[in-house]
Amino acid sequence: MYTKESIERVANNLLIELAKVDNSFSNPPYITEENKFKLVELLGGKLEYIDSIEVDGVIIPSENDENENFIIQLPASIERTSHLRDIFTIAHEIGHLFIHMGYGSDEFRNQKNYNDAMMRFGNSEEENEANHFAGNFLMPRDKFENYWKEKNGSLGEMAEAFGVSKPAISTRAKFLGLIRW
Ligand SMILES: [Zn+2]
What we know:
Blueprint: H1 4-21, H2 36-42, E1 45-50, E2 58-61, E3 70-75, H3 83-100, H4 124-138, H5 141-150, H6 155-162, H7 166-175
Parallel strand pairs: 1-3
Antiparallel strand pairs: 2-3
This protein binds zinc ion.
């Protein structure tokens, strides 16, 4: 059972570790069109776009390569995907990886069949947790609050700075108590 605080810590710690390896992870936007493949690679996995996928994203442990521990798959078809949606989905899948799949621990290899479907019903707890991770990873609290002051709460400028959609900014601002629900 994860609390909102513990999920925030997992996301913050991951950003700190990434920034040690690559300075571009010190500031937003944390996932971009340019760095998304590199990010997944730095984490020890592979990002790929495939046609035969009916959901927003899938994450599967990989068994065939020592240097490739997992694969994140996104839909290749243009109707199903958009840049900003992909960014959020990648962060969401990374959340499943660290929170639910035990990545980095011995338990990881035992979860070979974890197959995420974002739209799936009946598993909303884990979906909420992965979404909460994504919000924290893409829009960490401290940075978000600083930028919010700097940009006078402009949703457009915030969206630009963090590389996410305006609704994502708005939801995060409400969660952090910067604007009313
Ligand atoms: Zn999910």
